[in-house]
């Protein structure tokens, strides 16, 4: 592989970035549809999906969708309630093991909490 350089205009670069982002969105949609078709996923009510799309913590949204308090989720998952609060507020991201426990307790895929 050579280190060839190509120069393109800013407008062309931004167009390519936009296309790449759209392709990521399409791939995520296709994965979600595939999971639903295989019975691995459930539809999320629009009001809850809108909250996630608006940037709210997926952990909080799914917890509230399930009708759980932080304390109830802590008991169900074995994750400390303060740690859950930190993840929901964005102060901390949580380890893979923690996210796995939360995902299992909420009945969602780990990717859904990312």
UniProtKB/TrEMBL annotation:
This is XRE family transcriptional regulator. It comes from the Bacteria. Keywords: DNA-binding. It comes from Pelagibacterium lacus. SMART domains: HTH_XRE (SM00530). One of its GO terms (molecular function) is DNA binding. The keyword DNA-binding applies. Residues 60-113 form the HTH cro/C1-type domain. InterPro entries: Cro/C1-type_HTH, Lambda_DNA-bd_dom_sf, TransReg_Diox_bact_type. SUPFAM superfamilies: lambda repressor-like DNA-binding domains (SSF47413). Pfam families: HTH_3. GO terms for cellular component: cytosol.
């Amino acid at each position: 592989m050579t280190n060839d350089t190509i120069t393109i205009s800013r407008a062309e670069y931004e167009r390519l970035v936009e296309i790449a982002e759209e392709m990521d969105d399409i791939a995520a949609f296709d994965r979600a549809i595939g999971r639903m078709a295989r019975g691995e996923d459930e539809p999320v009510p629009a009001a809850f999906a809108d909250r996630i799309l608006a940037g709210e913590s997926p952990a909080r949204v799914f917890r509230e969708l399930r009708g759980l308090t932080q304390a109830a989720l802590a008991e169900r998952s074995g994750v400390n309630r303060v740690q859950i609060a930190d993840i929901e507020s964005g102060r901390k991201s949580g380890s893979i093991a923690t996210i796995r426990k939360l995902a299992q307790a909420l009945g969602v895929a780990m990717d859904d909490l990312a």
